[in-house]
Design goal:
Strand content: over 45%
Number of domains: 1
CATH topology: outer membrane lipoprotein receptor (LolB), chain A
Order of helices and strands: HEEEEEEHEEHEEE
Radius of gyration: 20 Å
Helix content: 25-40%
Structural class: alpha+beta
C-alpha cells in the first residue's frame, strides 16, 4: 500500500511538473503573440534607478512612444528634459539646453533594448535571451537571461511584467551585473493608436 501511495504521489508530481513546463511555454507564446499584434504603444513612465553607490533611488518621469518595427521616442520630462530617439538605424540622444542631439551607438542599443522589452519582442529572440515565465494572479512574469556577450557584460537579467487584463507589458526591470537595478513602470498605456 505504501508503495502504491508513493507511486501515485510520484506520478502526480511528474504530471504537475510537466504541466508547469507546458504552461510556461503557453505564457511565452501568449505574450509574444500580443507583442506581434501591437503596432504602436504610447505611455507615461516612471523610471526608478537603484544604485549601490547612492543612498536614495533616482526617479525620472516621462513619455514613451513606440511604433513597430523600429521607431521609439523615450522622452524624460522630469527631473530634466531629454529624449532618446530611435528611427531605424539612426539613434539620437537630446538633452535639455542642447540644440542638436548627437548620434550615439550606446543610445541606439539602449533604445532597441527598451523598445523590444516594452513591445515584448525580446521574448521571441532565442539567440539573445533564455526565457522563463510564470503566471501570477494578475500578471505574467518573464525572466530573460542574456546570451550574447555584450549583453551579459552589462545585465544579469531582465524581468518583464505583463498585465493580463491590459494585455501589455507594464513594467520592465533591468538587473545589472554590478547589482544596480532600473525599474520602468508604464502608466496610461494606449496601444495601436
Amino acid at each position: 500500500m505504501k508503495r502504491l501511495i508513493l507511486f501515485i504521489g510520484c506520478c502526480l508530481m511528474a504530471i504537475t511538473l510537466s504541466a508547469q513546463t507546458l504552461s510556461e511555454q503557453e505564457i511565452i507564446r501568449k505574450m509574444a503573440s500580443v507583442a506581434q499584434a501591437t503596432k504602436s504603444i504610447q505611455a507615461n513612465f516612471t523610471q526608478t534607478r537603484y544604485s549601490k553607490m547612492l543612498k536614495e533611488a533616482q526617479v525620472s518621469e516621462g513619455k514613451m512612444f513606440c511604433q513597430q518595427p523600429d521607431k521609439l521616442r523615450w522622452e524624460y520630462t522630469s527631473p530634466r528634459q531629454s529624449a532618446l530617439i530611435l528611427d531605424g538605424t539612426d539613434a539620437r540622444l537630446t538633452k535639455e539646453g542642447s540644440k542638436d542631439g548627437g548620434r550615439n551607438k550606446f543610445a541606439g542599443e539602449m533604445a532597441r533594448l527598451i523598445m523590444n522589452s516594452v513591445a515584448g519582442k525580446s521574448l521571441t529572440d532565442n539567440t539573445a535571451f533564455e526565457v522563463s515565465a510564470e503566471a501570477l494572479p494578475t500578471e505574467y512574469v518573464a525572466t530573460l537571461l542574456p546570451l550574447r556577450k555584450e549583453m551579459k557584460r552589462m545585465y544579469a537579467k531582465l524581468v518583464l511584467h505583463f498585465d493580463i487584463k491590459q494585455s501589455t507589458v507594464n513594467k520592465v526591470e533591468l538587473h545589472e551585473k554590478n547589482g544596480n537595478r532600473t525599474v520602468i513602470e508604464l502608466h496610461d498605456i494606449q496601444t495601436n493608436k
